[in-house]
Amino acid sequence: MLEKLALQKKFITNAQCAQAMAACRDAKNLDLALKNYFEQENILTDKQMKQLLASYAALKTIQKNQKFG
After folding, report:
1. pLDDT tens for residues 20-45?
2. CA 2 to CA 34: how far, in whole Å?
3. Of 13, 14, 16, 18, which is most buried, counting CB atoms within 10 Å of its CB?
């Protein structure tokens, strides 16, 4: 889901998304692996990473509320 948000916000290109997904494909926690990948490869700025993680947290909260609400 993190990669979709990054694409939607135009923080990464489709090619970068494909590379990230290939690099993190075998991870148990894909979103955490993608976060680490983006940081290690310096793909996102600190500001972009903060925005992306805030959007991700908000989306997770909305999803939880829909399940229980």
Report:
1. 999 999 999 999 999 999 999 999 99
2. 7
3. 16
Q: What is the 3-state secondary structure (H, E, C) of 2-51?
A: HHHHHHHCCCCCHHHHHHHHHHHCCCCCHHHHHHHHHHHCCCCCHHHHHH
Residues 12, 36: Cα–Cα separation, whole Å: 15
Taking the CA atoms of the chain, what radius of gyration do you get in angstroms? 12
Q: For residues 67, 30, 32 and 37, what is the CA-based torsion angle, rounded to 10 degrees?
A: -150
Mean pLDDT of the region 56-65? 89
Q: Which long-range contacts (CB under 8 A, 24 or more apart) does 26-30 make?
A: 30/2
Amino acid, single-letter form, for residue 67? K
